[in-house]
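Running this now, will post back.
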Amino acid sequence: MTSYFASVRSPHITPVLLFVNTCGNFLVLVALSTHVGSTTGSGLLAGAVLSAPWLPALLLAAPLNRLLSKRAPEGLVRLAEAAGLLVTAAALLAPGGALLVVAVSVVVVRGFFEAVTRSATSVLLRNVVPSQRLDHANTVAEICKLTGVSVGAALAGPASSVLSLRGLIAVNAATLALSALLAWALPSTPGGAVAGAKDGAASKTGARLRVQDPVLRRLFSRFLLVAFWQGFHTVAVTVIPLHLLGGGTRLVGVFVAVSAVAVFAGSLAALPAQRYLAHVPSTTWVLLPMVPLVAAVAVGRTVPTIALYALFLVLFEMAFVHYNNRLLASASDEELPSVVTLRATLLPSGVAVSILVMGALCDLAGPLPAALAVAGITVLVTAATADTGRAWRAKPAKQAEQPDAHRPVSATR
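Update: finished.
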């Protein structure tokens, strides 16, 4: 079967692999978090389990960056998926009394392998997809990854009611086996070995975990701003329906469901809008979502608030797709490993910090001051990075006019 997957190598396998990987992993992660919360009665411990997979990538950012700088991305994905499968299958051998602790430990350890897969697939797409189709490829990959997360989280409840924790881990092992097989269908980077031997000095430069290009630095500031919005949203899905609208758990469920649909709608809308996103001033994608956000919190009535907040999330997701694509397309080959490493580490870190800050602000002052703070910080960051919008659009266009010799169009077919 491995030889069959190897015979059909294509970058179009990447979105499928990301869907399978994230679906199985989040199925166990959400179920495990719920189990820990119900067993211990601690929401803090449940939240800690849910955020645990991002910790290894943050602590091991430098090794991750060196791997991405010196190794072929398709090989890294294969190794990461195989390693994730091995540690997950090993958890099935744990005795019943230790299974919960072992499962949590596996989730933490496997977080690094998941970061390798996410980062290496971004590098792979950049290497094998023509620059004029790169935005589309990155958007489809993000949509499939998001879909996998949502489907896995949605299946966690029903699956937990019919399967034990060991059964859920077995299902996860099966999905990882499939994603490991799909990894063999990823194409090889054209001329990767030759380029690696020829550009040893560039590899050493790329192994440093820093971004020197001032345009990329300012672009990263706006990308982290989107992470700041995500932290606010994580708090808002509970605070707005409970404290602003005065509802109960039922309204929270409705708010969460509408939010999930809105995020999907935004990611799907970004796909056909790719040809127009780069032609709109970059500041538009930062400032436009703030209008429905502030309006949703200011109006304070159930139906208008839910509708306006859903519009905010649609624009929020389109902004995320826009800046993610610009970040990946604008980075030079030498700085791309650092870019994807920082994206894999700073983004969850920014979300975590934002959750703490926005949660405290909501508790002390309420949802409206928190939303105004988000809008104010957004305006300040936009003003500080306002002179980069033209450069962000010009650089990918230049790459499209002068494609790299090692990136043939036929690689995607």
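Residues 192-198, 200-206, 388-413 have pLDDT under 50 and may be disordered. More later if anyone needs it.
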